Amino acid sequence: MMSIDQKLGPSRWDPAGLAELHQIYALRAQIASFAARHAALHVAAGLDPAPLRLRWDAMRDAGAKGDYSAFLEADMQFHRTIAAMAGTPGLDEIWLVLEERFRIFAGWSHHALFRDLKMLAQSHDTQLKTIASGDAVAAQRAAQVDLDALWQILTEQPAEATGEADPVERVAAYVVLNLHRRLTLTEVARDVAFVSPSHLARLFRQRRNESFSTFVQGLRLRRAATLLQDVDSTVQVVADRVGYADMSRFTLHFRRLMGCTPSEWRKNRAATGR
Q: Which among 113, 121, 136 is positioned nearest to 65, based on CA atoms?
């Protein structure tokens, strides 16, 4: 992994460092999903989720102020609290070891990939709500989709963050963090870009040479292709994690982009060892 400034990091993460990071990241994702599920089970059995709400409040406040150092610490504390709430002996100690390996990358990713910390803080809201509601399945899924989003943002590394995010950049970041949700041009233009739908549509055509819907669909399917490499997840689960409720539609769109069905893609990748 490259030597980086611990505050700002590089403008991009080098391929060798990315490969090493992926191993740590994959382990962190498994543990985070496990912790979220068991934290929710304990809440359902009577555990008070108030400490987690306080951590999220601190993250939200730091995001509103644009304070990257405070946001990083609040983010670390949020996930540390989930690990502690899981109630599994030794899990919080294991999490601290992973956190130490992951901290520099987390700080770098906040600076380099997220111009709007408020949006990143909001992406943790679903994790908070699902754990606080005691819904173990939803909590595990929320942890998974959050980590899916961060990894996709990393691997597609956008340009360096300089200045305030424009409408297209805000929307692109929002979409990657919310691919599991229903996304419409009208709602995103109103609630995220703060421009009219027609203006946002024009901006996407001008800046990305594609429509908003094509952009969203491409992100969904590229993430699906990555998730399909996990043989423990069914094709149905993968489709759900990228925002497809209709399997026929998912298969049709996937075949159109990748040239084969999701199941065939998985078999081909397994056969080639990639």
A: 121
What is the CATH architecture assignment of 165-274? Orthogonal Bundle (1.10)
Q: Where are the domains of the chain?
A: 1-159, 165-274
Q: What is the CATH number of domain 1-159?
A: 1.20.120.530
Helix or strand run (H / E) with residue 232:
none
Give the Cα separation of 14 and 6 in Å (integer). 16
Instruction: Find where tokens 């989709």 sit.
Output: 145
Taking the C-alpha atoms of residue 6 and residue 61, their distance in angstroms, rounded to an integer, is 22
Number of separate helices (H) and strands (E) present in the chain: 14, 0
22-137-247 Cα angle (round to 5): 80
Q: Spell out the residues 6+ positions from residue 112 whose beta carbon is closer than 8 angstroms to its own.
A: 8, 9, 10, 11, 12, 157, 160, 161
In this structure, the number of other CB atoms found within 10 A of the CB of residue 6 comes to: 10
Angle ∠(101,107,110) on CA atoms, nearest 5: 135
The pTM of the full predicted model, rounded to 2 decimals, is 0.72
- One digit per residue, the tens of pLDDT, for the chain of length 274 reads 333 344 444 445 555 566 667 777 778 888 999 999 999 999 999 999 999 999 999 999 999 998 999 999 999 999 999 999 999 999 989 999 988 888 887 887 777 667 778 878 887 888 899 999 999 988 988 887 777 776 676 666 544 443 445 788 788 878 888 888 899 999 999 988 889 999 999 999 998 899 999 999 999 999 899 888 877 788 998 999 899 999 999 999 999 999 999 999 998 887 776 5
Provide the CB-side half-sphere exposure for 19 (13 A, CA). 2
Asked if 221 and 257 touch (Cβ cutoff 8 Å), the reply is yes
CA separation, residue 241 to residues 176, 238, 262, 274 (Å): 12, 5, 14, 21
- 133: Cβ–Cβ under 8 A, 6 or more apart, which residues? 40, 43
